[in-house]
């Protein structure tokens, strides 16, 4: 995993450098600096490069360096497509005179519209619903609400998290599951405590259950002013049941298994967790990362809920997690044997502030 992120960072860095070079060559074709350079090619190139660097700095200040890179790479990809379309049209129509460089203007406009849409998608969570059937006796049914990847402090703060909960409250679920990455590396103590307080005001028939995600413990930010243990204490003080490779039976008909995150070295195997469970109860597994489907599909589980993938985050890279084998499922519902697997794209976001080809969501599952 460590080497994957190093490789991904290097690829992104190379892509950003190539994007700057390509965009510089395209800006020259717009002719915006032709008069200013007084037909001096080297000066025109320098001015074009300066414009690209200036735009990059503005984007970095507006968002951050990572999201600046996303914007520049998407502009490059869309500009390449526009240039290709323009080249094909020119070959077909064979105009006698060279026209204004329309492809460049189209590329800029399309990129702006695309990224604005991706920003809105990331910052506005919607409800996704699933209806599942079981042969087990669960009475009149169970209405499950679940969310993952709130990363409090990214697309919304602690108060914003409370507003998201207000939307879920209206669904009147029987139980609420929080499946990891409740907080982020940069989540402030104030936002964390505010989000925990909001959970104390969320009433359900069977309670609220939380399992850890890979970001909850923090990767690089040791200046948050609190530890993972402090966050767990705050959750428990506000009525949330924290499960770390633990099992809870609800109303003698529903069993909940909360797994520690995959990156925790002390995490128990699935067969040990389910060895002594009553197979007549409906068994729900909460596991932040969708990576252990083989053992879960061969266990006594009925439903496995995960997050982590953010739905693949950005088109056309949404399926990379599955193609590389990092995730068993990137998004949605899949059935393996008798077990239902559901992966949410998350209610929020982390470092990247855009989502395309996916959405921010909370999930409602009706089991009958």
General description of the model:
With 368 residues, the protein is α/β, with parallel strands linked by helices. It contains ten helices and twelve strands. Helix 2 crosses helix 3 (65-93), helix 5 packs parallel to helix 6 (189-200) and helix 6 runs parallel beside helix 7. The longest helix is centred in the N-terminal third of the chain and has 29 residues, at 2-30. It is elongated, with a radius of gyration of 24 Å.
Task: Chart the SSEs and their pairings.
Elements: H1 2-30, H2 41-62, H3 65-93, H4 102-123, E1 126-132, E2 142-147, H5 158-169, E3 175-179, H6 189-200, E4 208-211, H7 228-237, E5 240-242, E6 246-250, E7 254-258, H8 270-274, E8 282-286, H9 293-297, E9 303-306, H10 320-323, E10 332-336, E11 339-343, E12 361-367
Parallel strand pairs: 1-12, 2-3, 3-4, 4-5, 7-8, 8-9, 9-11
Antiparallel strand pairs: 2-12, 6-7, 10-11
Helix pairs in contact: 1-2, 1-3, 2-3, 3-4, 5-6, 6-7
Shape: elongated
Radius of gyration over all CA atoms, rounded: 24 Å
Order of helices and strands: HHHHEEHEHEHEEEHEHEHEEE
Number of strands: 12
Count of helical regions: 10
Low-confidence stretches: none
Strand content: 15-25%
Give average pLDDT, whole number: 90
The chain-level structural class is alpha/beta
How far the N terminus sits from the C terminus, by CA atoms, comes to 38 Å
Main sheet record: 6 strands, mixed
Strand order of the largest sheet: 1-12-2-3-4-5
């Amino acid at each position: 995993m460590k080497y994957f992120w190093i490789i991904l960072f290097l690829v992104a860095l190379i892509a950003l450098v190539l994007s700057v070079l390509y965009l510089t060559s395209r800006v020259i074709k717009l002719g915006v600096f032709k008069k200013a350079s007084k037909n001096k090619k080297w000066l025109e190139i320098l001015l074009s490069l300066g414009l690209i660097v200036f735009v990059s700095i503005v984007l970095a200040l507006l968002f951050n360096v990572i999201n600046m890179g996303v914007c520049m790479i998407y502009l490059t990809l869309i500009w390449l497509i526009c240039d290709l379309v323009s080249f094909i049209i020119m070959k077909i129509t064979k105009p006698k005179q060279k026209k204004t460089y329309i492809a460049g203007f189209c590329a800029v406009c399309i990129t702006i519209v695309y990224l604005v849409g991706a920003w809105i998608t990331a910052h506005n969570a919607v409800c996704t619903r699933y209806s599942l059937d079981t042969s087990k006796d669960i009475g009149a049914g169970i209405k499950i609400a679940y969310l993952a990847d709130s990363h409090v402090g990214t697309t919304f703060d602690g108060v914003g998290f409370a507003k998201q909960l207000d939307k879920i409250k209206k669904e009147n679920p029987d139980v609420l599951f929080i499946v990891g990455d409740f907080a982020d590396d940069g989540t402030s103590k104030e936002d964390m405590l505010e989000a925990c307080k909001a959970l104390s005001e969320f009433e359900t028939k069977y309670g609220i259950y939380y399992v850890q995600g890979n970001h909850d413990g923090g990767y690089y930010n040791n200046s948050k002013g609190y530890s993972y243990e402090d966050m767990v204490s705050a959750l428990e003080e506000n009525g949330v049941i924290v499960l770390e490779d633990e099992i809870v039976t609800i109303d003698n008909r529903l069993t909940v298994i909360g797994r520690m995150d995959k990156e925790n070295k002390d995490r128990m195997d699935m067969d040990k967790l389910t060895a002594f469970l009553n197979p007549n109860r409906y068994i729900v597994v909460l596991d932040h990362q969708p990576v252990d489907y083989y053992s879960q599909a061969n266990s006594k589980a009925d439903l496995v809920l995960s997050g982590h993938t953010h739905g693949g985050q950005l088109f056309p890279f949404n399926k990379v997690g599955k193609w590389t084998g990092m995730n068993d499922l990137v998004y949605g519902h899949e059935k393996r044997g008798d077990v239902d697997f559901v992966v949410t794209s998350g209610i929020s976001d982390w470092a990247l502030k855009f989502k395309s080809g996916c959405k921010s969501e909370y999930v409602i599952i009706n089991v009958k």
